[in-house]
Amino acid sequence: MFVFEIIKEMDHPTEQQLLDEELNYINKLLPQYNVGSVGGGDNLTNNPDRDDIIRRMTETIRARVAKMSEDERKRIWSQPGDKNPNWKGGISSPKCDGCGKVLLYGHKKCSRCSKIGSNNPFYGKHHSEKSRKYLSDIRKGKLPANTNPIVLNGVSYISQADAARKLGVSIGSISNWVRGKFKQRPGTLSQDVNYTQVV
Q1: Residue 100 lies in a domain
Q2: Which residue, among 102, 129, 128, has the nearest Cα to 113 in the 3D structure?
């Protein structure tokens, strides 16, 4: 049941004065209804169904975006180059002194150019024989950090390099096969490898 009553009268108010006064009462009385954006409030803050409204809005937006093609998404949201309101013709993008590659702000050289020749902190230096032996010893028996075990035709290999050695093919062939980019050629993995699985 709703009860209507006048809580304040104003003589010849402007539209802005009415909105300000309505917002003042919304903040003071915290009503369950009439909290929309017309009075300067919002539709969610004091709404008793706030969580459910947010959930339904999220589901609707996700469903709409999922139906869009990549081109539609780019047309709506992508603002490359001069379509971006902050674009300044590329003059504000820092570039590498050596190769001209666009850099992150605060950098003067890309990681490659900063370590070439005399820019490399180890330039002109050499490891001693003792250092070489030490580095060799600590690496023995250890796999590289980026090693991923794989399974080819039910046989497990500790890495792509291990599979390539044991099957007598190149690492590139194994890598392309794992990524699904391999095109079969006679005598190359056609009989020995029917499926791959990254473990």
Answers
A1: yes
A2: 102
